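Retry 2 of 3 after timeout on previous attempt. Resubmitting structure tokens to design endpoint.
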């Protein structure tokens, strides 16, 4: 349900702009905006490496104009989403009907 809600919000934010940043991020494709691409890449590294992101990867994030505080904010966001997703899985939360078209599935992610 989280992916569906965030996808719908991203679509609304993308209105009138060329290319869909939300769709690109959802499908792990490059985002045209270099700064947002740096954020997406860093966030995926934080998740994949379970926070063990340092050196060159962190420098690329900071070089894109982000701060060390914003790196911690990425960790906070990952933490909050992990808690939310695990709770939704445990409680078998259903996607709201109005978000159904944006629901995530392995087939859609490919």
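Retry 2 succeeded. Sequence:
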């Amino acid at each position: 349900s989280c992916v569906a809600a965030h996808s719908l919000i991203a679509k609304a934010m993308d209105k009138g702009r060329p290319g869909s940043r939300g769709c690109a991020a959802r499908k792990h494709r490059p985002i045209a905006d270099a700064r947002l691409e740096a954020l997406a890449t860093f966030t995926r590294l934080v998740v994949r490496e379970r926070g063990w992101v340092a050196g060159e990867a962190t420098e690329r994030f900071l070089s894109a104009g982000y701060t060390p505080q914003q790196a911690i904010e990425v960790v906070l966001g990952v933490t909050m989403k992990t808690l939310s997703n695990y709770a939704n899985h445990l409680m078998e939360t259903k996607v709201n009907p109005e978000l159904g078209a944006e629901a995530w599935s392995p087939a859609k992610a490919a």
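Attempt log closed. The mean pLDDT is 82.
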